[in-house]
Amino acid sequence: MKFPEVTTLLSVLAVVFLRGAHGWDAPPFCHSYDCPEFTVVNKYEDFEERAYQVSRWITVDSQGVSDHDVKAGFTKLWDYTQWDNKAGEHVNTHTWPALISTTEVEDGGEKHASLSFYVAPEDTVLPTPNDASIRNETMPACTIYVRTFSGFLSEYNFQENLKKLRDALTQAGKAFDSHRFIAAGYEGPWTLIGRHNEDTG
């Protein structure tokens, strides 16, 4: 299966876009797959500032970010790409990253979560899903702050690195949305070494 295991997804908190359609050379951690395109604006000691171009995603809402919820959501997206759509067509799955997006309400209450697969630039028309909960989304051009780390990740590791990113951004005087974060995964569970993970804000 394409989708990364839960620990990988929770470790990578970022909207990350890599390989574009205009001769852009994607970083090695994209593994020669299609990824959204970005430009590195600045590199800091503890994080990187990137400018991403507009990108497209297939997305489904999730009950939460537990292992069960994430697996259920990504299974829906995976099935959609594997002919489970009204046209009975296969959708390109040679793309990274897969995303978990979370938005916290300001009073510290419940979170809204969604799961997404990146859509390759050449897939201009996608088949209509059989599952009405799956939708196509366009993510506008944006600036993302990214903290990179390696290894298999747990929710604890993710939260630990997210705190470090938040602290580094605050110390650097960077403005960011402290209630919305995105976890981006670049490897499936079969990748044991050289894993690439990112926290972003």
From TrEMBL:
Keyword Signal: yes
Annotated signal sequence range: 1-23
Pfam families: SOUL (PF04832)
Record keywords, A-Z: Signal
Protein name (record): Heme-binding protein soul2
GO cellular component, as recorded: cytoplasm
Keyword Phosphoprotein included in the entry's annotation: no
MF (Gene Ontology): heme binding
InterPro entries: Reg_factor_effector_dom_sf, SOUL_heme-bd
The encoding gene: soul2
Origin: domain of life: Eukaryota
Family the UniProt entry places it in: Belongs to the HEBP family.
